[in-house]
Design brief:
4-stranded parallel sheet, 2 domains, alpha/beta, about 10% strand, about 40% helix, 6-stranded mixed sheet, Rossmann fold, 16 helices, about 375 residues
Length: about 375
């Protein structure tokens, strides 16, 4: 299947992927007078006096803004807001398809932190929650933190936290498959220290802390292992040292991978060679999540000692994709009137996703995005 050609054909055929539908489809003159003038004035007066009741009287009870500046779209990089719109529409499609959540894609022609925060803050009253998407690191960290502090509704940068939730879920089961059963004492190498990588490492560390079994996590960027002796680290990478590299290891990707029990790649394709895999611990776990080309392709991995392989692609087993998490997370946040999505929510969501795979094996460490139990299981723990 040539997905490039099919994507172009379908997007052109339908002129996009989403539209707006009416909740009340049986309209007559009486209802129109209530929904619009003169009746709607009574609702406006009510909300002027009781703004907290907006979700009771408007669609904000089920409405998420999917917002990007187009600065880090898929593996395409900084391609701008207009080119980001198809991805934001796709996100809205997934929200509706899997969780029944209405989502509006919004692309901003603003690229500095202050501009993005101001724009999102200005439109936030129109929505019940904010899903930030495809905003480059390190700006994405400050943008999310400032919006979470400023707004009374849930804000989540899904590239960070949705990805982290699903990686943790898959890793929980991969550990069982390989007979490890615990994060304690294992080495996890995370290649890519941007938005997704940072969130993955932090959530893995938190999971270990909460379960009394902290792993050794090594962050690797394009210059090697993130270590205290590096003089080129920005503030966010220096913060990684608070919970990674406890033994002050320095060196290259090869140095990090040697003896490692697990590899998580959120960087670029074909980085993990069979020669590097040979230096890893026995029965290693590899989550090669770069798109569209994983850090190691399954046909290459088949000739190595990798025990569990996951990718970010739908055409291979074990697709680690944030679509497994974000519909349920936002469904639960909206339904349970959650004002902030916390670390406890993320950990609970990962556990709920992992639990749906009753008997994990090498080709099944996470459920399918089409599993009808998925959204309900995740939403139930976002309380």
């Amino acid at each position: 299947m040539n997905y490039d050609e099919l994507a172009l054909e379908l997007h052109k055929k339908y002129g996009g992927k989403i539209t707006i539908a009416l909740r009340d489809t049986e309209l007559d003159a009486t209802k129109l007078a209530a929904y619009y003038t003169p009746g709607v004035a009574a609702v406006s007066r009510r909300l002027a006096e009781h703004p907290e009741e907006m979700p009771v009287y408007t669609w904000t009870n089920n409405l998420v803004a999917v917002i990007s500046d187009g600065s880090a779209v898929l593996g395409l990089g900084n391609i701008g807001p207009r080119a980001a719109m198809p991805v934001m529409e796709g996100k809205a499609l997934l929200f509706k398809k899997f969780a029944g959540v209405d989502a509006v894609p919004i692309v901003l022609d603003a690229h500095d932190v202050d501009g993005i925060v101001a724009a999102v803050t200005a439109i936030a009253p129109s929505f019940g929650a904010i899903n930030l998407e495809d905003i480059a690191a390190p700006q994405c960290f400050e943008i999310e933190d400032r919006l979470k502090a400023a707004l009374p509704i849930p804000v989540m940068h899904d590239d960070q936290h949705g990805t982290a939730i699903v990686v943790l879920a898959g890793l929980i089961n991969a550990l069982k498959v390989t007979g490890r059963h615990s994060l304690g004492g294992i080495r996890i190498v995370v290649v890519g220290a941007g938005a997704a990588g940072t969130a993955i490492m932090r959530l893995l560390w938190l999971y270990g802390v909460r379960n009394g079994a902290t792993p050794e996590i090594l962050a690797v960027d394009s210059h090697g292992i993130v270590s205290a002796d590096r003089t080129d680290l920005n503030d966010e990478k220096r913060k990684l040292l608070e919970f990674t590299n406890p033994h002050s290891v320095s060196g290259s990707l090869a140095d990090a991978v040697a003896g490692a029990d697990a590899f998580v790649g959120v960087s670029k394709g074909s980085l993990l060679t069979p020669e590097l895999v040979a230096t890893m611990a026995d029965a290693p776990i590899v989550f090669a999540l770069a798109n569209p080309t994983p850090e190691i392709l399954p046909d290459v991995a088949a000739g190595t000692k990798i025990a569990v392989l996951a990718t970010g692609r739908s055409d291979f087993p074990n697709q680690v994709n944030n679509a497994l998490a974000f519909p349920g997370v936002f469904r639960g946040a909206l339904d349970h009137h959650v004002r902030a999505i916390t670390d406890d929510h993320k950990l609970a969501a990962a556990a709920a996703i992992a639990a749906l795979v009753e008997t994990p094996d090498a080709a099944h460490v996470i459920p399918s995005v089409f599993d009808e139990r998925l959204v309900k299981a995740v939403a139930a723990v976002i309380i």
